[in-house]
User: Fold these one by one.
Assistant:
Number 1:
Amino acid sequence: MFNFIKSWLKYSLKVTLAITVITGITTGFYTPSSYAGLPAGNAITDGKALLRYALPIDNKPVRELQGSLEDIANQLRANKRWGAVSKDLKQASRILDQPSKILASVPQERQEQAEVWISELKSGIAELQEIVNNKQKDPILEGRAKLLTTVSLLEESMVTEFPFEVPQEYSHLPQLKGRATIAIKTNKGDLTVVVDGYSAPVTAGNFVDLVQRGFYNGLEFTRSEESYVLQTGDPAGKEVGFTDPKTGKYRAIPLEILVEGEKEPTYGVTLEDAGRYLDMPVLPFSSFGALAMARPEGDVNGGSSQVFFFLFEPELTPAGRNLLDGRYSVFGYLVEGKDILDTLKAGDKIESATVIQGIENLV
């Protein structure tokens, strides 16, 4: 088991909290702007939202539609701003009144289905507006979640091909050219994660391959008392990672980070070591249950089978910046089972891990 995570997190999270407190005292709220080079605004803490934004598409209307619906949750947290919620819905409705702009990014063979989704979104938004008029918070959040699920399908239909090629030196490793959903059954309950090959094809591909092999079945979790991560993937015996039975060699996985605005990931170097202190990963550590590759402290390309869930409460981290971002490869997010994940401790066990969707994307 790689033990570096505990000491590093204990230090880095103390620094993070200090920055948060300072900016909160100085500005009156926890939305840093110029402090420590942190970007302004609220960090996205919903794994499903992060996965939507990570899709390699370039259609402004559908992103604006998504943004309007995502914002509803922010307004309901902020003293239930009903007027702002209604404004978000009206904005979404206006976007859907021009479906041709959305359909322009959908391949011809998928447009009929896309038109059905757009129609469902129109009627769903109209229904949600009525609920807003009655100021019912829980039904609004439920309706919003359903609408965003449909938006996800619409956005996914716009992806026509894998957007880049993995560098030749890593092309022999398993790759996930798309996404996959993993059901993890533990002794305390079930977790569901979505791993993103569009942003981290090698890291996600390695994980899906190992799940398919049954590698994680029966493995225990480790979590120290002060740690904000839940780690697993250390096989029995002296090995600390996966040894490929075909080669007899340790399968080493490179550090892999896709930065916002770029078309392909960087490999083999942390963003800090590359001098890219302000660059933000497409898949950040801002969500409870972010799934990342563990590695030896001094070897950025030394990861293998050990992975960890990030458990730190995102409300306590500076907006848009976490001190782990750019140092470790996030490759997916927990989408179901947050309450279960929060209860798992050292000694708890993975009973089984199964790919339930997207196995055809593993190459």
Note: The chain has a mean pLDDT of 87.
Number 2:
Amino acid sequence: MDFRFSEEDEKFRSEFRQWLDANLAGEQRKNPFALEFFANEEGEEWEKRLAWHKKMHAAGWIAIQYPRQYGGRGASITRQYLYDEELNRAGAPQLVNSQGIGLVGPTLMHWGTEEQCRRYLPKMLAADEIWCQGYSEPGAGSDLASLQTRAVEEGDYFVVNGQKVWTSDAHHADMCFLLVRTDATAPKHKGISYLLVDMHSPGVNVRPLVQMTGDRGFNEVFFEDVRVPKKNLVGEKNNGWLVALTSLMYERRAREMMPIVHELAALARLVARNGSNAWDDSRVRQIVAQFACDARAIRLVGLRQFTRQLKGLPPGPESSIQKLAYSELNLRIQKFAMELLGSYGQLAYQAPFAIDDGKWSYRMLAARGMIIGAGTSEIQRNVIGERVLGLPKG
């Protein structure tokens, strides 16, 4: 493989890097929990992220891969890749509307009408409307097709009743892309429709779910006789499973793991082990080196997926492999951090006397969420075993 980029692409990278360096203040470059699962971002913290998003949007640096008519730059897959790399390098705050821009936006461009695209995409990019995803239910998490939230036709509307759970950012959201059952007699992968729902509609009730980290980024959402205009149906009625799969295809993207490996190495240099610095222990260095090798391998798998995109090929198994690998690697890293910290690992984030501000105990608590969200590790193993290796179903 030749991973060198063209001269024009490198110019693009340099332009974006210079803009970030000129506009992203040092105190904004913390992003201390880039791998955590929906950290608590309320009040002032949310407003800071929202302001950063709008600043990037005003400069034309939001959703650069979108067509120009929808507010993007029409950037190539290569430039989108470089864009993501530079955001990671800069430690930029996460954007506030990732559910909309990353998931429902591409889905609308594939399945939606021109009217829907022009209505929703510009406000989505500007963060004038925040989006959340209404997929999982108490009895339909990994087995998403078993969902029971119903939508019944009534004149020009669908009337929705049901419950969704683990709805990230629902407490901030103005809109929700919602999976509902519109034909209760059809097989479970049939009779499902994909609706765009105004979260300010009468009958929508959002309740926070407090995680063991203390964060409230998740929610459960109740729909009671919520009226949704039929023009908010995406794709065909009862064929929403295919539309939903398009969104899921964009969800399982791996994160860059090498920065957290470097942080772990710094922690090892900070703490004592067996009467000396932990980094002086060859076993510690070997474990961190193995983590670095794993992180590098995950990145190379991502480049394989990137190469498929450049060739115009359909998505391959790399997304499931990456998702499984990085979430499990993150859990192993957090467990080893707890081993290094010893009794200090019991101290909570920002507690007095906590080493490294207690961020590793926070990360350890959050790591379990990553092996559940966007498809559990068990589901990913099944996908890889059945669809990649051709193994029989268990």
Note: The chain has three domains: 7-96, 131-238, 252-388.
